[in-house]
Amino acid sequence: MATVLKANRRENLQGSTTRKLRKEGFLPGVLYGNKIDSQPVSVESVDFLKTVREVGKNGIFSLDVDGGKKHQVMLYDLQTDPIKNEFVHADFFEVDMTSEIEAEVSIHLIGDSPGANAGGIVAHMMHTVVVHCLPSDIPENIEVDISSLHIGDAIQIADIRERVSVDIKNEDEETIVTVQAPAAEVDPDEPVEAEAEPEVINEKSEDE
Question: For 180-207, what is each residue's pLDDT tens digit?
C-alpha cells in the first residue's frame, strides 16, 4: 500500500499567513505536474518528515489534497532556512509512472581508500548525479567504492556508468572522487632563514 501524505489547499498566499502556517506546525508547498495546474498546498511538518524518512528522498508517495484525488508525487525540491535550520517550502511533482523523468541522486562513498591510509586526502568532487529513468526505478543513492584508490587515483562518471542500472546524464569526464597527495607540512619549530640583504653594487662613498 502506497504511503499517503495528507495536504490542504492554500487559498491565502500572503506572507503573514504563510508564516502563521509554519508556526502552527505546517509546511507550505506547491503541487504541480505536466498534466495538472499548479496548486499551493500545506502539509503537517511532522507527517511530512515521517513520509520522507519512510520513502526516501526520491521515493514516490500519494499526496491526498483535501480528501479528494490522490496524486502520485515525489519530492522535487525542499527549501531550508539556513539560519533556523528548518524546512520552509516543499515542491511536490506529480509523476506519470509510465514516463521516464530526470532526477537528482546522491552519491555515497563506501570503502576504505589505501591512499587515504597512506596520508592522502579523499576529495569528494561530485555529491549528486542526474539520472533518467522511470519514477519507480530512481535509486535512493548511488554507492561508489573507493577501496582501490591510491594517491593520485580518481573515479569518473565513465567508471561507474556500466555498474548503475539507470541512465546517468552527466558527462563521462566528470570526476566524482580523487585521492590527493598530502600538502607539504611546515615544521613550526624549524627556524625560517632571513632573506639576504641585496648586495649594493658600485655604491659611492661619501668622500667621492
Answer: 998 755 445 555 454 445 454 454 444 4
- 123 and 169 in a single domain? The answer is yes
| CATH code, domain carrying 139 | 2.170.120.20
Does the CA dihedral 144-146-148-149 come out positive or negative?
positive
> b/e map of 30-67 (b: 16 or more CB within 10 Å)?
bbbbeeeeebbbbbbbebbeebbeebbbbbbbbbbbee
Global pTM value: 0.72
- For range 116-128, the mean pLDDT: 96
CA–CA separation, 138 and 129 (whole Å)? 12
Give the domain extent around 122.
Answer: 101-180
Which CATH number fits the domain that encloses residue 54?
A: 2.40.240.10
165 and 109 in a common domain: yes
Residues across the chain: 208
Task: Dump pLDDT digits (tens) for 148-184.
Answer: 999 999 999 999 999 999 999 999 999 999 999 987 5
Residues 84 and 124 in one domain: no
In a domain, 107, yes or no: yes
Contacts 24+ apart (CB under 8 A), 157-166: 157/129, 164/131, 164/139, 165/137, 165/139, 166/131, 166/132, 166/133, 166/137, 166/138, 166/139
Task: Establish if 188 belongs to a structural domain.
Answer: no
Tell whether the torsion through CA atoms of 187, 188, 189 and 194 is positive or negative.
Answer: positive
